[in-house]
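One thing: can you check what follows?
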Amino acid sequence: MTSTNNSIRNTIQQGDCIELMQAMPARSVDFILTDPPYLVRYKDRTGRSIANDDNGDWLEPAAAEMFRVLKNDALCVSFYGWTQTDRFMSAWRKAGFRIVGHIVFRKRYASAARFVSYTHESAYVLAKGRPVLPANPPADVIDWVYTGNRLHPTQKPVAVLKPLIEAFCPPGGLVLDPFCGSGSTLVAACDADCDYLGIELDSAYHRIAARRLAA
């Protein structure tokens, strides 16, 4: 079965993304754009945290399900935690993905400072099969837009996500975000005239995303 059940298009599901993706047909989404936990036990200044950021048990099975539900010759863009690059890379490759690009999102501020100041976010472009090259490929360095993290401790800006969807998802295609947080990917999909499917484990952020999309 390769078609997508229309009942899950333009919905936000609450629960474990591995279990929910297992219930989806294989090869049913056109593009995946996601910001999973970085495996760094992150807490922001107000104490907010992210579910499953303290363990990597979910990483390999989630990558395997993402690969399964993605259509052949299609792309996935995933943010990742740079201190855990080896673990993310291993999970993606074990699932079957090929790395075909890397994107740096350049910030005008430092989110932290250790040996160096952290002034960027990063994402890998992952391929299943042999996707066609985009007509207008995005730059591999993109200026960040600060969200203030009002809705989520690692809230991503819609403005930097929309061009990725426009480049890598066919018109009207289905964009999946299995770690959708406050729903930025889903809003970007709507703005790009695509359908969306979001999955979020945390019930509070699921409600925020649902209200955001309803508005």
In short: The mean pLDDT is 95. Residues 14-214 form a domain with the Rossmann fold fold (CATH 3.40.50.150). The first strand starts at residue 11 and ends at 14.
